[in-house]
Amino acid sequence: MRILIAHNFYQQPGGEDESFRSETALLEDRGHTVIRYTQHNDAFASMNSLRAAQVTFWNRRVYNELRALIRRERPDVAHFQNTFPLISPAAYYAARAARVPVVQTLRNYRLLCPSAVCFREGQVCELCAQRHLKWPGVRYACYRQSRLATAVVALMLVSHHYAGTWQRAVDRYIVLTEFARQKFVANGLPAGKIAIKPNFVHPAPAAGDGTGGYALFIGRLSPEKGIETMLEAWQTHAPGLPLRLIGDGPLRERVQQAAAQHPAITWLGRQPNEQVYSWLQHATCLVFPSLCYEGMPRVIIEAFATGTPVIASNLGAAAEMIQDGETGLHFRAGDAHDLAVKAAQVFEQPGDSRQMGKAAREEFEANYTAERNYEQLMAIYEQIV
Question: Distances from the Cα of 12 to the Cαs of 8, 181, 248, 276, in angstroms?
Answer without folding.
Answer: 12, 27, 11, 19
